[in-house]
Structures are given as structure tokens and as C-alpha cells.
Amino acid sequence: MRADARENRARVLTVARELFAERGLEVPMAAIARRAGVGIATLYRRFPTKESLVMEAFAEQFAVCQGVIDDALRDPDPWRGLCTVIEKVCLLQAADRGFTAAFTASFPELHSEVRDRTWEHFAALVRRAKDSGQLRADFSPHDLTLVLMANSGLSGVPVEVATAASRRLVAYLLESFRSGTDVLPPPVPLSLDLVLS
Predict the structure, then answer these.
(1) CATH topology for 59-196?
(2) Where in the chain is the domain with CATH 1.10.357?
(3) Which residue among 43, 100, 132, 172 has the highest number of C-beta atoms inside a 10 angstrom radius?
């Protein structure tokens, strides 16, 4: 790839991340091309679909998210591993609205390559934490969606405030997830797609 083509590609990815963080995934491809200073044909030559642009723009965050879950599965303390995942995913969400939208989007590539594997690993983490006796028996992996829905309410405030508030919210929620706390109503099978609603 020529130097100018590499620069255009890098600029498109930077602009896409910025616009996705500001406005979510609804940003038109033309708006991304315009702000990046490239023609729409150039954008589509590098990224033939919005899905491919999203995957590339958030590749590093997806890898971090998967790494957090993989590390948590290796943690000898299942409760600490589960808490770490919830804390870090919520911080990512509070800091970057675009990543949350990408993570919960219904793009086929995201479902097959990232979301399904991430969901399976999170469910395994939940089972480990329950088996250790530290996580309440009625916790469901679907409760992660409920946590993300609650945490998404912070997206309209400045990042510094959102991340601080997210830490406090998650701390409250994690306390309620410990075994030995009061019985809750039954879990609701919530799809991650609902976080965008």
C-alpha cells in the first residue's frame, strides 16, 4: 500500500472511531469520508461495508475485551475474574459509545467472530463463579445485558464523569451479585441488542 493510501486509511479509521463514539454506528459512511477528507469511492475501496469498517475501527477494543475474558477464565479466583470482566467492559462502554454499539451490533461478522465466543466464555465464567459459591445462584449471563443497559445511561455525560459514575454503579451491582444476598425476581433473557434501544 502506498504511503498516501496508508495515511488515508489511518485517517478514515481515526475519524470513524471518533464519530462512532460521538453518535453511535448510525453515522453515514459519507459523513465519515467527508470528515476524513477522502472521497466516498476511496472509503468503499478500503472498507466495502460498514461492518468491515466497524470491525477494523474497533479491532483493538475487541481484542482487549476478549483478552479480559480469557484472563478472567485463567484467574484462580472465579469471583475476582467475573468482577474484573464486568468492571472493565462497563468502563469501555462508559468511555466509548461507539465500541458498545459495535459490540452489541447485529452485524453477522460480529456475531460469528466475536460475540458468540465472548458470550460463551462469559457464560463459562459465570458457571465457575457459581460453582465456587461466591456468585448468587440465580445470576444469569443475561444479567450482563441488564448491567450494560444501566451503565449505558452514562453515555451522555463527559467521559471523566461517566467512567467515575460507572465504577460506582458497578461496585453497587457487584455487591448485589454476591451469594447470600436476598432473593431477586427471576432473570429476564435480554439480548445484547437491547442495549442499543
Answers:
(1) Tetracycline Repressor; domain 2 (1.10.357)
(2) 59-196
(3) 100
Angle between helices 143-152 and 78-95 (to 10 degrees): 30
Q: State yes or no: pLDDT of 76 exceeds 70.
A: yes
Phi-psi region of 24 (alpha: psi -120 to 50; beta: other; left: phi over 0): left
Q: Contact 72/81 with Cβ under 8 angstroms?
A: yes
- pTM here? 0.75
In whole numbers, what is the pLDDT of the chain averaged over residues? 85
Q: What is the pLDDT of residues 148-182, one digit of tens each?
A: 888 888 877 788 888 889 999 999 899 999 987 67
Q: What CATH class is the domain 3-56?
A: mainly alpha
Q: Which three cell numbers stand for residue 100?
A: 458498545
